[in-house]
C-alpha cells in the first residue's frame, strides 16, 4: 500500500509563506493528505504575537478532480466559517517554485480535540453538568451548519476542537461536507459514527442531515460512557446486531446507560430515520435529562431466574454437544453436574498444565464457551437459561470499545508525528486533526 500523500510532503518548518506574512514555526500534526503547522503572523507585535493554524497539502492540476474536491472543501468551509461554533477559515493560497503547495489558513485552537478530552484526558468522567454543557454547544454548531445548508457528514470527537482549554468548541474538517439533501456517496465518513443508511451501499441514497444526527448521537454516547457502542452500524457487526436484537438490554446492561439516557438513545438509534428525533428535539431532551443520566450506571445484580423446566433438556444436550465438538479438550474440559432441581449444569475449566501452549498465559476458555453457547442458542431460536431477561437473546459480553489514537498530542517533534488512518473514507481522505 502506498504511503499517505502527507508523508511525501517536505517538512516546511521554518519557512516563510504568504509573501513573508506567515512564518511556519512548528509542525503540529500530519493527516492523510496534509501537514498542519503553527504559523506566526510576522506583522503582529512581539509582545502579543498572533498565531494561526496553516494546513499544507500538495496542489492539484487545474481542472483535475483533485482540484475540484479541494475547491469544494474551501467553498463549503468558507460558507459557514462566520458561525461561532465553526473553526474560522481565513484564506487559501498556493506557493512554491511551481505553485505545488496549497496552504489553508485557519484559526489556531490551543485546547486540543474532543477525542483526547474524552478517551485519554477523561475530563468528562463523573462531570455530568460539563457533558450536558459541551454537547449543547456541539448541537448549536451543527445546527448553524444546517441552517446554512451545509451537512458535515463526519461529525465525531476528532473533528471537534477547543478554542482554549476546554472552552469554546469549534467544528473542523469540512472535506466530506455537502449541500446535497440526498447523497449517493456511501460509506462517507468514519465507520463508528456512520449512520446505517450511509453504510448500506444497497440503498439508492441517504440523508446527510440524518448522518450528522447519528454522528451527534454517537458523540454524546462517547461523552457519557467513554466508549463506542459498535464498530459500524451494520448487522454484520456483532455489537450492533446484539443491540438491534434487544436495544434496551444492550443499552442498559452492556453500555450501562441510565433509563433516561436509554430512552433518548433508543429514539436516536431507531432503524427508520423518519422515527428519529430532530436536532431540536434532541436538544430539548438533553436539557431535560437529570445529571445522573449523563453518567454510566453500575447495573444492580439481578435475581437468579427460576429453574428451567425439564423440556429444556434437549437444549442442554445440544449446547453440550456443540461445545465438546468445537473446543479442544486441551484448552477446556466440560462436565455436567445436577442442580438442586435436577437439571444438569455445565461446568467448564482450563489448566495451563494441559494447554498445548508452552509460553504466555493460558487461553481463557470461559468467554469462548459463552460465545459458543450464545451461537447455539441463537441458532435454535429459544431462550437459554442465562442471566438475561426473557427476551430470547443470550446476553453478550463485550469489552469496552475504545477508539485507537493514531496521532500524538502536543508537544511533539517531527519524529513523533503519526499518520492517521484513512480507512472508511470514500473521497478526499483527509482526516487531519488541525490543532492539538
From TrEMBL:
Identify the domain of life: Eukaryota
Q: Which GO terms describe its cellular component?
A: nucleus
**SUPFAM superfamilies to which the protein is assigned, alphabetical:** Protein kinase-like (PK-like)
This one is known as: Kinase-like domain-containing protein
Task: Please state which protein family the record places this protein in.
Answer: Belongs to the protein kinase superfamily.
Look up and give the organism this protein is from. Mycena maculata
InterPro entries for this protein: Kinase-like_dom_sf, Prot_kinase_dom, Protein_kinase_ATP_BS, Ser/Thr_kinase_AS
The family database entries (Pfam families) matched by this protein are listed as: Pkinase
Amino acid at each position: 500500500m502506498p504511503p499517505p500523500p502527507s508523508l511525501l510532503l517536505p517538512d516546511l518548518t521554518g519557512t516563510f509563506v504568504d509573501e513573508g506574512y506567515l512564518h511556519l514555526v512548528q509542525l503540529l500534526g500530519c493527516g492523510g493528505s496534509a501537514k498542519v503547522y503553527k504559523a506566526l503572523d510576522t506583522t503582529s507585535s512581539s509582545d502579543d504575537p498572533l498565531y494561526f493554524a496553516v494546513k499544507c497539502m500538495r496542489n492539484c492540476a487545474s481542472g483535475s478532480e483533485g482540484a475540484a474536491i479541494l475547491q469544494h472543501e474551501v467553498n463549503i468551509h468558507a460558507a459557514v466559517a462566520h458561525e461561532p461554533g465553526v473553526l474560522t477559515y481565513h484564506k487559501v493560497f498556493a506557493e512554491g517554485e511551481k505553485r505545488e503547495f496549497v496552504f489553508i489558513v485557519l484559526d489556531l485552537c490551543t485546547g486540543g480535540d474532543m477525542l483526547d478530552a474524552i478517551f485519554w484526558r477523561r475530563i468528562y468522567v463523573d462531570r455530568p453538568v460539563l457533558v450536558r454543557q459541551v454537547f449543547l454547544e456541539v448541537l448549536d454548531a451543527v445546527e448553524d451548519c444546517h441552517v446554512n445548508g451545509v451537512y458535515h457528514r463526519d461529525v465525531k470527537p476528532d473533528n471537534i476542537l477547543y478554542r482554549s482549554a476546554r472552552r469554546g468548541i469549534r467544528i473542523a474538517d469540512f472535506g466530506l461536507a455537502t449541500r446535497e439533501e440526498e447523497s449517493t456517496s456511501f460509506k462517507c465518513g468514519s465507520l463508528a459514527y456512520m449512520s446505517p443508511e450511509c453504510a448500506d451501499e444497497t440503498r439508492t441514497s441517504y440523508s446527510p442531515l440524518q448522518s450528522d444526527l447519528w454522528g451527534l448521537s454517537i458523540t454524546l454516547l462517547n461523552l457519557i460512557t467513554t466508549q463506542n457502542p459498535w464498530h459500524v452500524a451494520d448487522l454484520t457487526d456483532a455489537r450492533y446486531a446484539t443491540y438491534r436484537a434487544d436495544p434496551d438490554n444492550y443499552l442498559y446492561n452492556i453500555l450501562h446507560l441510565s433509563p433516561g439516557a436509554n430512552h433518548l438513545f433508543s429514539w436516536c438509534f431507531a432503524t427508520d430515520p423518519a422515527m428519529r428525533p430532530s436536532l431540536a428535539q434532541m436538544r430539548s431532551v438533553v436539557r431535560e435529562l437529570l445529571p445522573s443520566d449523563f453518567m454510566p450506571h453500575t447495573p444492580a445484580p439481578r435475581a437468579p431466574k427460576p429453574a428451567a423446566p425439564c423440556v429444556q433438556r434437549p437444549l442442554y444436550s445440544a449446547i453440550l454437544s456443540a461445545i465438546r465438538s468445537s473446543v479442544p479438550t486441551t484448552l477446556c474440559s466440560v462436565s455436567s453436574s445436577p442442580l438442586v432441581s435436577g437439571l444438569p449444569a455445565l461446568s467448564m475449566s482450563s489448566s495451563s498444565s494441559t494447554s498445548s501452549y508452552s509460553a504466555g498465559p493460558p487461553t481463557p476458555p470461559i468467554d469462548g464457551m459463552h460465545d459458543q453457547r450464545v451461537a447455539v442458542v441463537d441458532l435454535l431460536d429459544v431462550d437459554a437459561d442465562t442471566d438475561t431477561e426473557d427476551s430470547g437473546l443470550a446476553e453478550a459480553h463485550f469489552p469496552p470499545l475504545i477508539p485507537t489514537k493514531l496521532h500524538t498530542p502536543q508537544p511533539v517533534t517531527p519524529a513523533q508525528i503519526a499518520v492517521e488512518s484513512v480507512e472508511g473514507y470514500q473521497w478526499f481522505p483527509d482526516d487531519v486533526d488541525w490543532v492539538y
